[in-house]
C-alpha cells in the first residue's frame, strides 16, 4: 500500500468534483497538491443533473474538453409538472450571460473524468486513504490517514481543503456541524432502463410535484444510454409510514405521478433502490486555522434545483483563488472573499428552496402567461447563476414572495 511521499503545499480530502477542480486549479498556479480519497473510482454518487454555471468552472480547470468527450446527455433546461400542469425553462433564454447548456451525468463516470484530468495535470491522487484526524500548529496542518492495510500515517501541508462531501470530515472532527434549518427529508432513488418514447425531450430534467402532497416531488434525469436516474423526495415520516420495501415505495409514488407515470410506463427496474436520509446540513464556519470547507463538506441545502455540484465547483474556484493569495504571503480576508462570496449564491438557492416547499415558487413556475423578462431571471437562477447580483432575484431573493402573490392573484 502506497504512502504519499514529499512536501505538499495543499492536501485535499476527497476527489469528488470540488476536490478534483480545486486541486487542478491550485496545481495550475504552481503548488504541490495531494488528494487523499477514501474510495476507489469509479464509485457511485448521487447528484447527476448539472447546471450550466458549472461549465465555467470546468473550463477554468481545463476539464471541459474531457467532459465533452465523455458524451454525457446534453441538457438545456428543466421541466416541471403537477397533475395536468406542465411548463419548462429553457436555460438558453436566461437573464445572465454565460453557458445555457450542460449535461446529465452518471456520477461514477463524471467524477472519474474530473479526477483523471486533475491527475493528468500533475495533481497526486492516492485512493483508498481515509483521513481520520486533523491538527494545526503555527506553520502547518497535519492529517492522520489510514490506508487500506489499516496502517496509520501522518501527512503535513501548509493548508488543507476539506472536499469530503457527505463524509464531512473536518466538520465532524472540529465540531463545526450545525443542524440544518430545513425540514428533514428522505429520498429514494435508483437507475432504470427507461424505455421512454423517442419523442420525449431527454434534454431536460423533469421535476414532478405529487398531485395531492405538494411537498413530495420526483426527479427524472435521462442519460445518453437509454437509462435514467429517477428518485422521490418526501418528508421522512411520510416515506417511513408507507408499506413495503424501498422499491415498492418508489414505484407506488411514481404510479401516482400523472405525466411521470405515463412517461415511465415501460421502464424496467433493474437496479436496487437506495435511500438517503437527513442530507441537509450546515456548519458554524466555512474556514479556519489552515483549512477551508468545500462543497458538501460545508453546507448542503436540498436537491430540488440540482445546485449541489454547482455550489461545490464555485467553492473550489473561490477557495483556490483566496488560498493562492495566502500562500503568496498576502493576508486575504477569508470571511469576505470566501465565506460571504460563496454564501451569496447559497442564500439565493436557499430562498428558492424555501419558496419551493412553501409553494411560492411552485405558483410562479406553474403560472400561466409569465412575463418573459421575469421568466429569464428565474431561469438564470435555475441555471445556477445565483451569484449574479445584476439579477433582481439574486440581489433581493425575497422578491420571490411578491412575484408569487402576483402569480396567485393573476
Ligand atoms: P462528493 O462528490 O460527495 O465527494 C466527496 C469525496 O470525499 C467522496 O469521493 C468520498 O469518498 C471522499 N471522502 C469522504 N470521507 C473521506 C475521508 N474520511 N477521507 C478521504 N476521502 C473521503 N447535485 C447536483 O448538482 N445535481 C443533482 O441533480 C443533485 N441531486 C441530488 C440528489 C440527492 C437526493 C442528494 C442528497 C444530493 C444531490 N445533489 C445534486 C448534491 C450532490 O450530490 C453533491 O452536492 C455533490 O456530490 C458534492 O460534491 P463534493 O465534491 O462536495 O462531494
Range of strand content: 15-25%
Which stretches are poorly predicted, pLDDT < 50 over at least 5 residues? none
Mean residue pLDDT: 95
Gap from first CA to last CA: 66 Å
Please give the share of residues in helix: 25-40%
Report on this model:
- The structure is a single chain.
- By secondary structure, the chain is an alpha/beta fold.
- It is built from 15 helices and 19 strands.
- It has helices at residues 17-28, 53-60, 64-69, 107-120, 169-173, 236-241, 246-255, 259-263, 295-298, 308-327, 334-357, 360-366, 372-382, 392-395, 399-409; strands at 8-13, 33-37, 73-75, 77-82, 85-90, 102-104, 124-127, 129-136, 141-147, 152-162, 177-178, 185-193, 204-209, 217-222, 227-235, 274-277, 282-283, 287-288, 291-293.
- The strands form 4 sheets. Strands 1, 2, 7, 8, 9, 10, 18 and 19 form an 8-stranded mixed β-sheet that branches. Strands 5-4-13-14-15-12-16 form a 7-stranded mixed β-sheet, sandwiched between helices. It has a two-stranded antiparallel ribbon with strand order 3-6.
- Helix 10 (308-327) runs antiparallel to helix 11.
- The model has no long low-confidence stretch (mean pLDDT 95).
- Bound molecules: flavin-adenine dinucleotide (FAD).
- Flavin-adenine dinucleotide (FAD) binds at residues 13-19, 36-39, 45-50, 130-131, 163-167, 169, 187, 276, 279, 295-297, 300, 303, 306, 308-310, 312.
- Residues 13-19, 36-39, 45-50, 130-131, 163-167, 169, 187, 276, 279, 295-297, 300, 303, 306, 308-310, 312 line the site of flavin-adenine dinucleotide (FAD).
